[in-house]
Amino acid sequence: MERFLIVDDDKDTLDTFRLFLESEHYRPDTCMTTREAETLLAKHEYCAVFIDIYLPDRNGLDFIKELQDKSFQPAIVVITGSSELALVKQALRLGVFDYLNKPFRLESLRLLVKNVIIHQNLARRQRLMDNKEEEQRRSIENLFNQKVRELEESEKKYQKLVEQPIVGVFILQDQKFVYCNRKMKEFLGYEPDNPDCPKIGFSAITSSDEAAGIQSKLDQLTAGGKEGPVYFRSHFAAREGAREHIVEIWANAFQYQGKAAIQGITVDISSRIAMEKRQYQLELQLINEHKLAAIGELASGIAHNLNTPIAVIQGNAELLQLKYPYEEIIDKILLQTSKLSELIEIIVHKAINENNPETEPLNINQLIENELKFLNAHLFFKHKVNKIIKLDPKLPIIPATYSDFSQSIIGILRNLIDDMENTGEKTLKVSTRLNDSFIQIELENSCPDYPPDSLGNYEILSGDTLRYRELNHPDLNGKILHNIMARILLARYKASFNIVRNEEKGIRIRIDVPVKQN
Questions:
Q1: Dist. CA 360–CA 402, nearest whole Å
Q2: What average pLDDT score do residues 236-255 get?
Q3: Does residue 109 contact residue 129 with C-beta atoms inside 8 Å?
Q4: H-run or E-run covering 122
């Protein structure tokens, strides 16, 4: 039951407030001085305090300013006469919630009390969300510090490995190894203690294309067409099914036993590459977590700042409608405020879900509908793009983290929309369907003069794992980063991507998500 405090030196006013609030099943406390009010405020928590501007022991405005300086949480409503407009403006500048003119109608008081309760409930919810966001910030900070420590430890381990004797040394003559040290024999798949050197060349341990490139560089060295040393990177696989080594090789030409030969050193960098990939994925994870916190904070703030004025506008419009039932402009006001309320609900829903890292039942259709409504803030998308939306109502609910799918889908959609910005007639198609044991999400754009080179931005979505050269793409930003994040976020759901040019000059991206993930 909500509790209210009324401070007024007029007993009749206090009785009116008390009887009205009790009839509405609220709990009123009344007093006639600020001193009594301070005593009551120290004892009870109030939803709102109604204060007369003129009080016998102190000016009401001075008392309000003192309360506001103490970060007063209950809403403050000023009780005043209709002739005291200047004082009302002064009170509003102090940050009071609203004012009530004497004499007042009970219907006006009822609406004001309702608005106060809505405002205070939103304020409480905002404080709870702020506390939760603060906890999440601390959690993210702890995670960040933990990951930094892990990376520092990994770096120290790598440095220790480099200091160990892990360098392979070889001599190559007539395209075959004629000398290999212990580590080089290990790279080639031979026993390190075997006294013989394997009579093979690079063609036996690398792919044919890679071996041809290596041999071309080495031939230039032995022919004197290039000054050494030369550097190249290679993938060694001693035999089928053996672990692949990623190695760096430095080589130079020299004379060995009277014949031209190549001497070189080989360093295994497989661990370093794995560490770099892991570090990059950790950075993406941290970026994602900070983004979730930022989205939640922004959305909650917007909802908090909009709900109160909308409630006031709606309430006053409804009162006007009772007085003027045939005025169309009032119907339009109510329609628009209703739309704003719906948008705020979507914002709050998105904020709550984006900040929830837990796996919960996910309705993909509902998520897509919310994200498309959210995209309407993109004016180009809202006004210039034709939308064709077909969502299968039979789509099953799956266990998932909301933000994994929302960020993946919104990132790809933004890429497809941006690709159409400087083209002719534009269409975006979004559809879902259940195909056997897969949920299929299709995102497609089309326009007459679609950029022919845009397909390359999406090809990074396909494949089983991210390769080193993809993580070190020279243009790793914007569209490519959106696609990499989508691939990483949906990998845990064993999702696969199919990317093709469609017949209507655009890109079609299909995401297949298994309904049951092992």
A1: 8
A2: 71
A3: no
A4: helix 106-163
